# Entry
Amino acid sequence: MHSAINTAGPRAHEIAELMTLFTAVCAVVYLIVIGVLIWALLRKRARARLASEAEREIADRKARHVITWATALTVLILITLGLSDFFVQRSLFTPPKDPLRVLITGHQYWWEIEYDHPDPSQRLRTANELHIPTGKPVELVLTSRDVIHSFWLPSISGKKDLIPGRVNTEVLIADKPGLYTGQCAEFCGLQHAKMRLVLHADSPEDFEKWRQQQLQPGREPATDTERRGRTVFTSTSCVLCHSVQGTDASATVGPDLTHIASRGTIAAGTLPNTPDNLAAWILAPHRMKPGVQMPATPLPPDDLGALTKYLASLQ
Amino acid sequence: MSTVQLQDKRALEAVWADPPGFMGWLKTVDHKRIARRYFVTALVFFALAGLLALVMRLQLARADNTLVGPDLYNQLFSLHGSAMMFLFAVPIMQAAGIFLVPLMVGTRNIAFARLNAFSYWIYLFGGLLIFVAFVLNIGPEAGWFAYVPLSGPQYSAGKRTDIWAQMITFTEAASLIVAIELVVTAFRLRAPGMLLRRIPLLVWSQVVTSFMVIFAMPAVMLASSFLISDRLVSTQFYNPAEGGDALLWQHLFWFFGHPEVYIIFIPALGMVSEIIATFAARPAFGYLALVLSLAVTGFFAFGLWVHHMFVTGLPPAGMSFFTAASLVISIPTGVQIFCWIATLATGGAIRFTTPLMFVVGFFFIFIIGGLTGVMLASVSLDSQVHDSYFVVAHFHYVLIGGAVFPLFGGFYYWFPKLTGKRLSERAGKWNFWLFFIGFNLTFFPMHILGLEGMTRRVYTYGADTGWTPLNLLATIGSAIIAVSVIVFVVNVILSLRRGAPAGANPWNGTTLEWGTSSPPPSYGFADLIYVGSRQPLKITPLAYVTGLPTRMRTSLATTLADARPDHITPDPNPSIWPLVTALAVTVLFIGSIFTPWALIWGSVPVTIALIGWFWPTEKQARDLQACEVKPEEGRAPRLVEIGP
# Structure
């Protein structure tokens, strides 16, 4: 789900209610002003009556009266709207109690996700697909490694920029389990359009199960093909950017692939995670996302097949 | 108006006419000719930028379209925004000022007429630079807002962003120059008797705008100079890794960028006031309220810029201030709308001409944009709609509704004065209805798209988003706008060829520009009158100016507040030097894209050109002497009263 009106969390919900209030007030104001305008344009003019200076004076005085009141009313409406905004703002900016902390780093054109934990062995890294437990506030700590990005999950909350050299925070609370999508909202270069984001709101039990599974190192290959795939992975340019926990690959330039097979999408939420897509992506990522940072990797078909098998095994 | 003929028109023509032929065309300093040039050039840029938008709309007409790729798409929207703002909207509004302000205050030429010629040339060269760059595939790619670090040396390698930043330098220099000319013209060259309270509303709007230009443009020139030096000579203003700050750009840019919206919009409000007053057959209701509203808007426009940065993580208390300021600015706008409606309600019989229809369209569209602007003032709502298509819808409602509709109205209104021909009313109504319908079809759906999560500046979207139908609708609407613009162009061309002659005052206007022939002669007015009311053409003038030297170009300078005759000021003759200087400056500006040394070597031709510009000729020296009035000789400018 991907909409600021169909909301799935208390924060987006509060904003949507404020939006309804503003829209209703503005609609009424619009109809009144346009109504009066049409009346002014079409009214039958008592030309003779308006001809005399004195009559004109009276008409002007009446108009001055109406304008004064209309202006006062405008001020009143603006104060009301401003105050209602301040109340919502205050609740949005109140820091949550005991949140789950997740560090999000923006990259051209993907999201690095790291779950914070006082115990380093409990920290885990993933990319582009964020899992959160329902009902619990999640504090996102946002920064960027390159240009400015903006984190936006419209159904859950408003957006917040990821700015290099700065750290911002945003809070997510999801009401019910489900799959929500989002997108980078600040123009960040060639593939800004395909810098998408997937949120899995899980029940607390499912979330814990997912977390435990993600804490495991990359699965050991079970077949010869997978073993060969791992050799391809660790002996070609893949390791220059990616990491798989439990192997020698530990670079952090690109997304962490330790549990790549557990993700539903690749290429920052833009392609379904199927073996075919994965193989095509490795061969020529520019076909799908022109301008993407990942270079093409021309592997012989056998190697590519083995590599794809290996990656698909990394549950 | 001129019942009395005091001045010899032939003598005036001999002094004020441009030299004939091509050289005369290059040398002219006539504000009317230069304004015409500005109009044509700005409208060409409008059409080109509109074509870019059409290509974007075609690309977005369906999901996963592959008509243009991301690289071209980014250039398309970057150039569309930059050209519409810097090459169309601001220059065309200032062109209206260049043409109308001297005529409306009753003087012969704009102040600093040679600078005026210079401003046009560098505007033209700046515009050509960026469009030629686009054709050569080095068009801007970082958006019209060019946020760092994306526009910085690391993420926008090559010359694309340098050329964009230098285009800003060209156009901002041009626009600062025009702003100064307009302020001086309106403050010191008014017809005697045109007290502050008798200044036409359009002139007030141009004065307020010009002051805004003077205060806002330096911010963007500073910002873009920092950017250029970051890119060219490795300064680190915007690089957080070296102690710079990425948000600095946004503060500087929006400190200019928000007033920019009002710089475009306030002149349009002046046009609305004049058009409504004429077609409701009464002076605008609430003159003082209207003037003060303009001034207050101009003032508050500088206190809103942070509402473009509500999601950058600034402190909430600081943002609340900008929410309040953003709400407050809708009050003067509301007051103006109320005054205009009152003018229409209490006026005489309303004439539904094309200019007035565009103004009525302005009300319908602009008010929606104003109200969605109130929504954007809210930090909470903005966190959802910011950088979504909702904002795209909002500012097109404000800028097209608030500025382009009045501009078209103004064009239909003053075209007879500009050319001496009337535009076809029938084609005008087609123009209006197609534009009105096309506009709403294009931009209304974008509100909904934004709320459904469609972000700005995306070159494509997936079919799973469900955004296709509304995007298709928007594309259809944009095609209708294109048809309406074609109707407009055809109307202009046919009317120029065989339009009905306009006569001096086709609409029964009451401001001074309608008191001279259409098109006005090179000297503007034969006789300079004393202005005794806000509607000078409604009464026979009480007095005329005499005592101005007739063998040379001169104007009467009057005092700021009460417009008493003050002194005679010489007006420049035609000159080739503004063009030569503009060419030298262009070489310097473009050269500095490639090497900082261009600033050093490029200044040599600029200096030579300026020496040529200011080299006094014998005739000039004699003219200057003639201007020095010795009261005992009885040649001081004075008013001659015309007795009954």
